[in-house]
Specification:
The protein has a six-stranded mixed sheet. By secondary structure, it is an alpha+beta fold. The longest helix has 25 residues. The N terminus is likely disordered. Strand 5 and strand 6 form a beta hairpin. The chain has eight helices and six strands; from the N terminus they run ββαβααααααβββα. It has one domain.
Length: about 240
């Protein structure tokens, strides 16, 4: 486990307490971290349950609000975060960069550094990369006359590029960069309750990450749902890239 200190959200009296992650491991006899891809067939039927969908919407709206607060703190534009989560759009699509104030050179530099550090727009950049590779191989014709492509050409490029975006109902569709596991931990807890109802589910978070865990009747942790890049996310990214290489 990479997290050494966590915050328990269900602490008595509502006051969070900090405990060591290795304590969790010790008292749980090495619980299983669920492999998302291998067990996706068990998860998929529950994703459309009203309670699961409502939990995801709540988590995403909190994430969106946090991005706006961060933009205000850093002096960035906030208009793009004046939105609510659209259930028809996957969490992956909300990883776009924070707004740039084009009239302020310092802000523009700071914004670019901020977005790079948070891996913003990961999936769009990846799709753009695959599309350019297709152009190089002659699989997609892209002839631009002049300095700028026409609106029709932009639409054609976007339509071709979209095939490389995560598809709805896949694990990739739910991957949110920029500390996404922290914001989606409550959703993972609700999801766990539906997929594995025989376990009692809770969540733990650090400053930048979060997991959901299920315990048996004796209080031992048996299963962990984890979206962090160090685990399933990293594996899914690599397999996604390999599939479209």
């Amino acid at each position: 486990m990479l997290i050494t200190a966590i915050k328990r959200s269900d602490a008595p009296g509502g006051k969070p307490t900090r405990i060591l992650m290795n304590s969790l491991v010790a008292m749980s006899d090495l619980p299983t971290v669920l492999n998302l891809e291998e067990n996706w067939h068990l998860i998929l039927p529950h994703l459309s349950h009203p309670q699961v969908m409502a939990a995801l919407e709540t988590c995403m709206n909190e994430y969106i609000a946090s991005r706006k607060v961060e933009c205000v703190r850093l002096g960035f534009l906030t208009k793009q975060w004046d939105i609510k989560y659209n259930p028809k759009i996957g969490p992956w699509e909300y990883a776009f960069p924070d707004g740039v104030d084009g009239n302020n050179i310092d802000n523009r530099r700071k914004t670019l550094e901020h977005n790079y550090a948070h891996e913003a727009y990961f999936w769009v950049d990846l799709a753009n990369h695959f599309t350019n590779k297709a152009i190089e191989k002659g699989e997609f014709e892209w002839n631009v006359e002049g300095d700028e492509p026409t609106e029709e050409q932009r639409d054609q490029f976007g339509a071709f590029e979209s095939q490389f975006y995560p598809a709805k109902g896949t694990p990739e569709w739910y991957l949110l960069p920029d500390y996404g596991s922290f914001w989606l931990a409550p959703w993972l807890r609700v999801l766990g309750e539906h997929v594995y109802p025989e376990l009692t589910w809770n969540k733990v978070t650090s400053e930048k990450a979060g997991i959901a865990y299920g315990t048996d009747k004796k209080g031992k942790i048996k299963l962990i749902l984890d979206l962090r890049e160090e685990y399933e996310c990293g594996e899914l990214y690599l397999k996604f890239i390999w599939k479209h290489r």
